[in-house]
Amino acid sequence: MPRRNRPGRRADGGPPERDLGAATGWARAESGADGDWLVRTVPGSQATKFYRCPGCDHEIRPGTPHLVVWPADETGSVADRRHWHRPCWEARARRRPHRRW
After folding, report:
1. Contact 54, 95 (CB under 8 A)
2. Are 40 and 68 in contact (CB under 8 A)?
3. According to the model, what pLDDT value does residue 53 have?
4. What pLDDT does 97 receive?
5. Any idea of the CA torsion for 39, 44, 48, 52, to the nearest 10 degrees?
6. Which phi-psi region, left, alpha or beta, contains residue 18 (left: φ > 0; alpha: ψ -120 to 50)?
7. Label partner for 10 (CA 20 to 30 A): which of 1, 17, 30, 61?
8. Mean pLDDT per 10-residue run, the chain (101 residues)?
9. Diameter of the chain by CA atoms?
């Protein structure tokens, strides 16, 4: 039997949560102490360029799965998008982004 790609139900029994759609490149909204963000997962098969993670200042090499993150209030600004390693993004509250001088 083929697999069905249906979004799961929420824990509270409500309708499934939906991604924000093509307008944001299939991003999901996240809120934290540092503000509201749109977060998109980039699978390794679609990661074709080198990026620098602002959390650790190390390269994200082609083929490495990672996240693209930008402020929720500036969804149209490509300049505000940053590529993060997933663990660096999840640890951002404990560790501030590295600044290159």
Report:
1. no
2. yes
3. 95
4. 57
5. 60
6. beta
7. 1
8. 54 44 66 91 95 95 96 76 95 72 46
9. 56
Output the pLDDT for position 93. Answer: 85
Cα gap 92→76, rounded to integer Å: 23
Q: Given this model, what pLDDT does residue 79 score?
A: 85
| pTM, 2 dp | 0.66
Residue 62: count of CB within 10 angstroms of its CB:
12
Question: 24, 27, 31, 34: which is closest to 97 by C-alpha?
Answer: 34
* Token pair of 55 as six digits: 């959390």
What pLDDT score does 94 carry?
85
Count of C-beta atoms within a 10 Å radius of residue 101: 2
- C-alpha span between 80 and 30 (Å, rounded): 16
- Give the whole-angstrom CA distance, residue 68 versus residue 84: 6
Please give the structure tokens belonging to residue 8.
């799961």
Domain definitions of the chain by residue range: 25-90
